[in-house]
Amino acid sequence: MPHRLVIALAAACLLLPPLGAQAPATPRPKGATELRADSLLRAGNPVEAERLYRQLAQADSTLLRAWYGVGNAAVAQQRIAEAAEAFERAAVGGRLVAAVYNAGAMHSRLGHVDAAMAWLEKAVAAGLVQPSQYTSDPDLAAVRADPRFAALMKRVQAAFAPCESDPDARRFDFWVGEWDVSPSSAPGVAAGRSSVQRVSGGCALLENWTASNGSVGKSLNAFNKATGQWQQYWVGQGGRGGGISRESLGWPDAGLAHRRWDAVAAPELHPLGQHDGAPVRRDVQRQRQDLAGGLRLPLPAPPLAGAPLSSSGSVRPRIAP
Predict the structure, then answer these.
(1) What is the distance between the terminal CA atoms of the chain, rounded to a whole angstrom?
(2) Confidence (pTM)
(3) N or C: which end of the chain has fewer CB within 10 A?
(4) Which residues of the chain form CATH 1.25.40.10?
């Protein structure tokens, strides 16, 4: 994303406060001179636009938008060093995040790798964490080979999609996949199919349930940091009260389970833990049917490495999750 697209982003991140700071007051309205300068810049007259922006900056040193405009006008005239200086002035205090980023981009174009990285670090710290912004902007070509840029991108990605690297958000990944389901009371009878996908950047699991009689339901499952629990929001086609329910889920790796889960007793046991007093067999996942609320999560006992899930369980993956 080149610097010109960052201009468009400015409306969204123009006055983003530093992390931990209070949200800023509403930006002051633009006056006639600033609106005229903006119009001239969009119309392809950066020389006259820059003159007006500089006039505004000299009249009011606190109007950081004016220096931001000077920077954009200088870029349009290929005066990159002056653009870098103007963006630095606009970036005072770190609230104009687009200016912070653009200062880094201009230093990169000038070959000032150390200065560029310093400004990009500030942009990330201020909350600009769109990975595509950093990976596709041609202005950053000079810094991409620097090891510091690779480290920066790891932090950007982690901030952009925090659930991907959060162990709590990944505890139910074993459930992802396509499943044939039957009730515990009749393992050979097909009750329906369940398709489970990771959604929302890995922050939630979406269950798509289709019963053998054609009724459907969905649940959204996610970790609630406020309660320290996974929670499930289920909406079924024909359950009680319209089939809407919210329930907390236990930790799979702690041997804890939701109250609707079944444990499996079998001769071949693995010391994974116990559920309701029954040993848990590691290579079996079982799910029981609750006619009021549909079919719920399987017992979270991950298979042994290299071993398929046992077909003796009442939940069998059609495509291994």
Answers:
(1) 36
(2) 0.64
(3) C
(4) 3-160
pLDDT beyond 50 at 66: yes
Which whole number is the average pLDDT over 71-94? 96
Considering only residues 312 and 58, tell me which one the structure prediction assigns the higher pLDDT. 58
Q: What is the pLDDT of residue 63?
A: 93
Of the candidates 178, 204, 180, the residue with the CA atom closest to the CA atom of residue 191: 180
Task: Give the architecture (CATH level 2) of 3-160.
Answer: Alpha Horseshoe (1.25)
**pLDDT at residue 231 in the model:** 80
Q: Can you tell me the mean pLDDT for 175-203?
A: 83
Residue 61 near residue 70, CB atoms below 8 Å: no
Name the helix (H) or strand (E) containing 295.
strand 294-295
Task: Give residues with Cβ within 8 angstroms of 247, minimum separation 6.
Answer: 231, 232, 234, 258
Which residues lie below 8 Å from residue 16, measured CB to CB, with a gap of 6+?
A: 95, 97, 126, 127, 128
AA letter at 142 = A
Collapsing DSSP states into helix, strand and coil, what is residue 205?
strand
Cβ–Cβ < 8 Å for 120, 152: yes
Dist. CA 69–CA 130, nearest whole Å: 23
Question: Is residue 225 over pLDDT 80?
Answer: yes
Burial class for 57, CB neighbours closer than 10 Å (0-12, 13-18, 19+): buried
